[in-house]
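Q: What does the assembled structure look like for these inputs?
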Amino acid sequence: MADEVIVLDHEYSPPANRVIIALKEKGVAFVSKQEDLPNNKSSLLLEMNPVHKQIPVLIHNGKPICESLIIVEYIDEVWNDKSPLLPTDPHERAHSKFWADYIDKKIYTSARPVLTTKGETQAAAMKELISSLKILDAELGDKPYFGGKTFGITDIALIPIYSRFYTLEKFGNLSMNEECPKLVAWGERCLQRESVSTTLHNQYETYDFMLEIRKKLVVE
Amino acid sequence: MAGEEVILLSVYASMFSMRVRIALAEKGVKYELKEEDLTNKSLLLLEMNSVHKKVPVLLHNGKPILESLIIVQYIDEVWHDKNPLEPSDPYERAQARFWADFIDKKVPCKISLQWAAKGEELEAAKKEFIEALKVLEGELGDKPYFGGEEFGYVDVALIPFYSWFHAYETCGNFKIGAQCPKFAAWAKRCMQRESVSKSLADPEKVYDFRALTGLQIFFIIYMFDFYCLNSLDFIRSQVRLLLNFVIRISSKQAVCY
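A:
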């Protein structure tokens, strides 16, 4: 049966990147529709995600699934014949979901003020972001991936932020290799995967894009 | 199952702890309940949830599971022989998780605003809160439960907030049931389930509990996953709450301003 899989997407959106990476890991054929954000959302997006009106949205045979980590779990459940993204053991599954949730709460929430504020507010947000990344650095430890030997949901949750490490270094005047050396090595390891390298923009393109966004968003 | 050790680190008035208590009761799991004092957290809590230091924490044969919705999913997977909570169809399951996530994003934040604010801020917070409930009412429709005919995952995620409604209504001077009748009917239906009625905190106790610990900032921070106040507003709100409580106890009358 031919599946119709569409992703309402944006090339620089980390939550959208997660969905694309997951689909590529599973070898699922899909169509990506780039949204013109934030002010020109398509009528398809507004219809498929009327509650939050946000990307990403996965449309599978006409039915929408929203919220990036929920979409990744859905992808794992439906296309369950290859590349499992979650462990089978219930306790390990809960552990993976906990860290993916941590990334959503701590990394993405403090990343935004780093981008959109300045001075002391930005410095405080940067400090919090770095301390959360250090906790992830410790959690990763000497494992190749967060789940152990296999690339999984926690790696997918975090890897889009790796493209922003150069931006963080420039904004915070710091070295990510000094702050979170294990994460840097992990990021490079993940970039060896085709699903990741063909989805994420490189650090410098991302930095240019962040500067453009910052011009529009920073309150002067 | 023989030889299972299940312990729940919980706080009586915590909506997130209540979710887990309901799920365990639905599955008929025997467990030991350890009530935490958030102003004096046990070493066990600090060890088992070293990242967030929050309740609830489920300990299953010594291994911790954290975050209320993740715990509920875990309980549903492990004790899968009875009262399934999540739908079996992947699409329906994704929808249920979406709505539980909506609840987490839209309901607790408004609570913080209602406790601290007055005047225009309070009215705005009430409006947003009611709007969130109305969206949920729209999703519920004419179904007896969010999952359809059977009590399920989204119902478990939402019903604990019902025990806090008396506190909001008292402080916000409004009647939630009058504005959201479908929601009120659904809540009453859920309360008829033993798992719910035995797990939900007494609304009066929730109100007093909240006022009593008003000056304890860490308790409040850990009670809610999201809070929207800066610390000075927060301290002011807690002093007001405590005074309110003292007046209430002495005059046996709820006073909110």
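The longest strand of chain A covers residues 5-9.
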